[in-house]
């Protein structure tokens, strides 16, 4: 049976200090992720997106290492683990609404995050670029360029593991938003915004494989919604943690 906000806050306050701490950590993680999301949008406009080829990436890393690492999505690799904290906080807040569903959604997100983070990243390209700069023969350079292309094809935006991992994350996120609808801890607006946003992102991952243009449109639509949803979730998690203590 759905709980009111007061009942949900009381349930959390009756829980352990660790669970209240998870709500606080999840709220802080949400606000850090807002800063990351906004900074990424600005970076895309000013610096551009991912390099198209390994030769372009190596050249960029040699001439402007920081810009190269930014365009190769080093910030994503650094900040993505904060989603572990965010969904632990959501689990702590929603476990009394539907423990099984909250646990399943958290497990899906954790599995997806681990799959994405396990893919080759910008630091792999940095190591290859240093070897490329030190190479003395065309044959070695050609081999390193080929290795760079392989890394880029298997990174967190293109690799099979990353795409499947991203799909798991979005499925888990949609499920946790459905749990929000059943309880009073979060507003209906927060739940529905999350459902729409994560469904769009799931469509971007799956639909983009078959119709790349559609994937880009869905990603561009979902992207600006993230800071709004993260703000609503983060504010509520911090409020739950503060009132529970």
What layout of secondary structure does this protein have?
Layout: H1 5-13, H2 17-46, H3 54-63, H4 65-71, H5 74-79, H6 82-94, H7 99-117, H8 122-134, H9 138-153, H10 160-182, H11 188-210, H12 212-222, H13 225-244
Short description, anyone?
By secondary structure, the chain is mostly helical.
Instruction: Calculate the mean pLDDT score and round it.
Output: 90
Report the total helices: 13
Instruction: Outline the biggest β-sheet.
Output: none
Q: Which parts are unreliable, with pLDDT below 50 for 5 consecutive residues or more?
A: none
Would you count the extended β strands for me?
0
Order of helices and strands: HHHHHHHHHHHHH
- The helical percent reads over 70%
**What is the terminal separation in angstroms?**
25 Å
What Rg do the Cα atoms give?
A: 20 Å
Structural domains: how many: 1
Percent of sequence in beta strands: under 5%
Oligomer state equals single chain
Instruction: Tell me the overall shape.
Output: elongated
User: In terms of structural class, how would the helical and strand content be classed?
Assistant: mainly alpha
């Amino acid at each position: 049976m759905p709980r009111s906000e007061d009942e949900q806050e009381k349930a959390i306050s009756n829980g352990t200090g660790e669970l209240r701490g998870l709500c606080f950590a999840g709220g802080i993680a949400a606000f850090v992720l807002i800063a990351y999301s906004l900074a990424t949008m600005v970076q895309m406009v000013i610096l551009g997106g991912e390099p198209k080829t390994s030769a372009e990436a190596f050249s960029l890393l040699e001439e402007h290492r920081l810009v190269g690492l930014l365009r190769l999505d080093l910030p994503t690799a650094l900040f993505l683990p904060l989603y572990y904290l965010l969904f632990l906080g959501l689990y702590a807040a929603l476990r009394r609404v539907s423990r099984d569903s909250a646990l399943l959604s958290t497990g899906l997100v954790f599995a997806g995050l681990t799959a994405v983070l396990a893919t080759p990243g910008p630091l792999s390209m940095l190591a290859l670029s240093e070897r490329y700069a030190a190479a003395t023969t065309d044959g070695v350079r050609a081999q390193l360029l080929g290795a760079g292309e392989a890394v880029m094809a298997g990174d967190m935006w293109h690799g099979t593991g990353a795409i499947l991992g991203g799909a798991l994350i979005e499925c888990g996120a949609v499920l946790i938003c459905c749990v929000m609808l059943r309880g009073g801890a979060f507003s209906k607006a927060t739940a529905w915004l999350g459902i729409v946003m994560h469904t769009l992102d799931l469509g971007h991952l799956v639909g983009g494989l078959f119709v790349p243009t559609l994937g880009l449109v869905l990603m561009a639509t979902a992207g600006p919604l993230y800071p709004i949803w993260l703000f609503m979730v983060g504010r509520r998690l911090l409020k739950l943690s503060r009132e529970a203590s």
